[in-house]
Amino acid sequence: GGGNKNTIKTCVNAWLQFMTPITPHLCEELWNTTHDTLVSTSILPDEKRLKISESHVAGEKLVANLVDDIQEILNVTKIKPQRIIIYTAPNWKHMVLHKAINLSEENGSLNMGQLMKRIVTNPDLKKQAKQVSKYAGKLTGEIKKLNEKDITYYQTNIDETKYLTESKSFFESLFTCSIEIFSADDSSINDPKQKSRFAEPRRPAIYVE
User: Fold this and answer.
1) What confidence score (pLDDT) does residue 74 get?
2) Average pLDDT over residues 63-79
3) Single pTM value for the model
4) What are the start-end ranges of the H helices in the chain?
């Protein structure tokens, strides 16, 4: 990792401990990459050790969810990865998501027409109206499913690309392969299969080879 190395280690360890009753074999496998003991016999962390900022909580949830997504891809494809490329969402998707959540909280529901009216007031979003409209339409259904914790997670301000880059060595150790991380907005992006177009806020796109 980077400046958040200790926080990442603490939170990933806690995540593995709490997930063990649900996915015991996977958690033991991941735990054994950095421990000589069993996760099932480890002592759960206390509240004081886990008292960290909302941004760190969101960042570690991002990392944990991404580990799950990568592991699922590897399990399904049976690929032994040589390289994994991670793509975070473009800024415009974050802007649309925040507008959708704010509008939903103001009105108690989310209407596509009202959302688009709010979106087109932003010149940058108006320029790519077709893409924005498609994503906004998807959000109208997804926002309804979010609970209070989900909303806090999505509204917490974190730089996903920076956070994942700081966690790069963790991913490389876990998956024993080269890891590359790009924002979909990066002009020098390495995107051989155009996977970046699938990246969404808090749900990076993944390319494995």
Assistant:
1) 97
2) 95
3) 0.77
4) 5-19, 24-31, 54-77, 91-107, 112-119, 123-126, 129-142, 148-155, 160-166, 168-175
